[in-house]
């Protein structure tokens, strides 16, 4: 499922969603939320397009999606109301929700309000298009090495296997005192024990997945909380895909949301996938019928 709104990145967003549908041999649902009847606090200040404009947008994007692969089954849905709430409800019927970064990412690198809301409320994994879709590079997954993060690793390993890419598993450990906000001092040994414990936890967590996906080359990377933001930013520029879980703290999602795209004049980075806690692979039956649905 892809949420479209007529922005400049819309065609590229549909291209990405269509490529994902073709990759997984799944139907594609194009959803546009028309704000015509919405009168809430988040209604835009500009002119509201007519319902005919919204339907024409869906028709054009449907034609574009079929250019990627004519065999893709495409359905459209035109909804009325608040985009964040309606896309959250619709995500319960999808195996993947594709959304875009704000158009003016150079000036405001953080995600838009709708994407930020969906990051914590989507029922299915959410892919954020950030201006580029690299064809090479590893799949990078940020893992907490906790049981609730199994869904994130499942998605990352399955994706790396599907596209024959190496996987880099990144695990963050906290320096003593950093989580409580107290001044952090470097002890004798420079956190050797904490780092070793993090490396063991990561290795133990990955052991079952490497056995399940023996053909996927896996690199382990352990970093502390101070270095994590830079590590995530570098991964966005060097990988084909970055995968993270929203988790109980949402720290990885926050880092991805605020990662700078305009550094050194480079605006575009690889897509990001956020996996909700407890997610497991399913195939929603609600997306199998072609055609258009108009919801009010």
TrEMBL record:
What highest taxon heads this organism's lineage?
Bacteria
Q: Where is the UspA domain?
A: 1-130
Give the organism's phylogenetic lineage.
Answer: Bacteria, Bacillati, Actinomycetota, Actinomycetes, Micromonosporales
**Positions of the UniProt region annotated as Disordered:** 275-296
Tell me, what's a Pfam family for it?
A: Usp
Its recorded name reads Universal stress protein family protein
